[in-house]
Amino acid sequence: MNATTLALEGASALPENHERESLLQIEGMHCASCVRAIERTLAPLVHSVRIDLATGVAEVRWDERLAQTGELIAAIGRAGFKARPAIAPGYDASVAADAIADGRRGLLRLGVAGLLGMQVMMLAGTRYWITTPIEPALLLLMRYAEWALTTPVLLYSCMPFFRGAWISLRQRALGMDLPVSLALWLAYAASCANVLLQRGDVYFDSVTMFAFLLLLARWLEGRGRAIAQRRLRELVAVQPSTAMREAADGALETIDASALVVGDRVRIAPGEAAPADGRLLDASAAFDESLLTGEALPIDKRCGDTLHAGTPNCGLSPVRMIVARTGEHTTLSAIQRLMLRSQAQKPKAQQWADRMAGAVVALVLLCAAVAALWWLPRDAAKAFDVALAVLVVTCPCALSLATPIALAAASSRLATQGVLVASADALLRLPQVETICFDKTGTLTTGLMRCERIEISGIDADEAQRERMLQVVAALERGVRHPVASAFAQIETSLHADHLEVLPGRGLRGEVDGVEYELVALPAEGDLTWISLRDAERERARFGLSHRLRADAPCAIAALAGAGMKLEILSGDAPGAVRAVASELGIEHHRAEQTPANKLARIQQLQAQGRVVCMVGDGLNDAPVLAAADVSASLAGASTLAQARADLILTQGELAGLPLALEVGRRTRRIVAENLIWAVAYNLVALPLALAGALTPGLAAAGMGLSSLTVTLNALRLLRGPSAIDARSSR
Predict the structure, then answer these.
(1) CA angle, corner 85, sides to 82 and 88, nearest 5?
(2) Which helix (H) or strand (E) holds 306?
(3) pTM of the complete model beyond 0.85
């Protein structure tokens, strides 16, 4: 069973039992109650649903005999939210347009609340700051002015809160928008009644202040979420946007890749990627499948072999393919689903906060009712103020925002530096890591090679002959997409190779200055890979090649060692190659010729010693050990299965992202703890004050809004700090 099969089994539909899986992007969610409303709506239609509030991604599994994707989207729409497939043609453009429109609407609501709220506060300030009596007629006029200015804030700016409360009531759930909406309407209605009756206090200033501060916190939260979503879309691999389709008469036409259907014949030029999954029609070809397998060497294909979307043609001539799978059914889409699906996993801290938020809403409503009943026989006017203050001051927005906004900010910060967070819990586990184990090939080294040794055959071996053989090889390898070719790419030569031919599974054949040469691979020897240059008579030269270290590997390893990490190499390569890399990087502990079972046993041995282990790998054989490690990281070119098991994906192929992830992980854990402590402590202090009547509704609104704002701004500190490149260059 190959990597593609395993990946598709883990991420795709299972047609045999009619089970389907889809990832939906949902817009309009603001809190845990929104998530619960969608979960309740989908429960009768699906087997399971997992929703991530920070990215708005929902993973849904259902029986296609009971419902189709459109019915699920329609059900979510009836619940008051917008949904669409997270992987679909035109998705990026439409989501970007909707995000811009939503951002503008949110900013406009905030602007209306802020601008009109300032006017209301100026008018209300006369009651607090001016000690001389105000003419009753003027005071009444000012109250009517406050009423007129507050009404647009309530009916326009506060509409998202009312919509959320209505959704909660329809779903028979207690969402945080419910006490917010109840407080706003009670304060507004009581103020209107007191203006008409010309008695008592008005609370228009409390309404506008409460609305503005809460909208500001929600707008900042939305910006952090939008950044996380945008980075995720940018970093997920995409298939070509166009394809060369071959008509029945052999004519070629350029069409949109999304228009391909099963059975179409397409032509793939050298260097271009397959636009869909299909079968090879030509006799032979070579394709770079590092996207799927992590293997740097191109894969030789025969007629009838499977080609995967997104894999480039490494041959010297165009090849033909018949389309077998398109759109969301391709292997490339499976990779996208694996990345997006991982975002729907809630960390334990967020699950705790979500459960607490629902309980807090119920407690808030109960406390408000009890407070009103207790104060009513003592001071009827005071009873309303106290109940209103309790509703406002204890809204659990800060508690629900504490974890997701911090994780979204941290994920966004890392995404800009080339680290995709595939498991939110990993950010909170990273600070506990003590030991980091690395695979070698493809992880510490690149897919590029360099020539270490040259052995010239025959008695005429001299410097001129050596230079001649190097130029012959450079001519043969010019324009070839292959790691071996990279070892000779810098050699300047005036020679030209004619009649080039790829020898599947062996090497190259071509003519240079009228002499036919073959360049073929030899068995590995020591820490070098050997290739042989031959003509019709005999072997002319041998070249010993080695993989190059990643450019940033020495700095990244030094940074990790400086942070107190214990480093180890676990590689399946020969001892000589592993020893050479370990020596160059200064890693003392290294193990060679390790099978997947050996690597897994070593990780388990370290864990049995009480160590928290991070594994960094890229190949299919690294998938078991990546899954077993406490935290795992993989590179962008890793196999699909390796990426599916990884908590962190280094999307730029740079190890410098790993020390940065450790630093951001430490800061994230600290900030999440600070946010949760603040949210809980604030409610524990504010609730008794409100019950005792020590807080006016205006002060309660300010306290609640500032509490949510404090949590949001504290989390957004994660967006600042040195970049991976800055950290690397400073050492």
Answers:
(1) 130
(2) strand 306-307
(3) no
| Tens of pLDDT, residues 537-589 | 888 888 888 777 888 889 899 999 988 899 999 887 777 778 888 888 899 89
Dist CA 274 CA 421 (whole Å): 28
DSSP 528: B
Residue 372 sits at φ, ψ, to 5 deg, of -65, -45
Query: Among candidates 345, 396, 404, which has minimal Cα distance to 672?
Result: 404
Q: How many CB atoms lie within 10 A of CB 727?
A: 19
| pLDDT tens digit sequence for 221-251 | 566 555 545 544 444 444 566 788 988 787 8
The pLDDT score that the predictor gives to residue 716 is 77
* Per-residue confidence (pLDDT) for residue 147, from 0 to 100: 94
What is the b/e burial string over 1-30, where b = at least 16 CB atoms within 10 angstroms of the residue's CB?
Answer: eebbebbbebbbbeeeeeebbbbbbbebbb
Stretch 59-83: mean pLDDT: 82
Q: What is the DSSP string of 632-698?
A: EEEETTS-HHHHHH-SEEETTS-TTHHHHHHHHHHHHHHHHHHHHHHHHHHHHHHHHHHHTT-S-HH
Q: With both helix axes pointing from N to C terminus, report the angle between 331-342 and 204-235 in degrees, rounded to the nearest 10.
A: 140
The residue-averaged pLDDT of 149-175 equals: 83
Q: What angle do CA 23, 28, 32 make, to 5 degrees?
A: 85
3-state SS, one letter per residue, for 464-526: HHHHHHHHHHHHHHCCCCCHHHHCCCCCCCCCCEEEEEEECCCEEEEEECCEEEEEEECCCEC
pLDDT per residue as tens digits for the range 325-339? 876 666 656 545 544
C-alpha Rg value of the chain to the nearest Å: 32
Instruction: Tell how strand 539-549 and strand 445-456 pair up.
Output: antiparallel
Using pLDDT thresholds of 50, 70 and 90, give the confidence band for residue 617. Answer: confident
Whole-angstrom Cα distance, residue 426 to residue 85? 26
Q: Of 136, 132, 130, 127, give the one whose Cα is nearest residue 206.
A: 127
**Exposure of 431 in the CB half-sphere (CA atoms within 13 A):** 12
What is the Cα–Cα distance from 322 to 314, expressed in whole angstroms?
A: 18
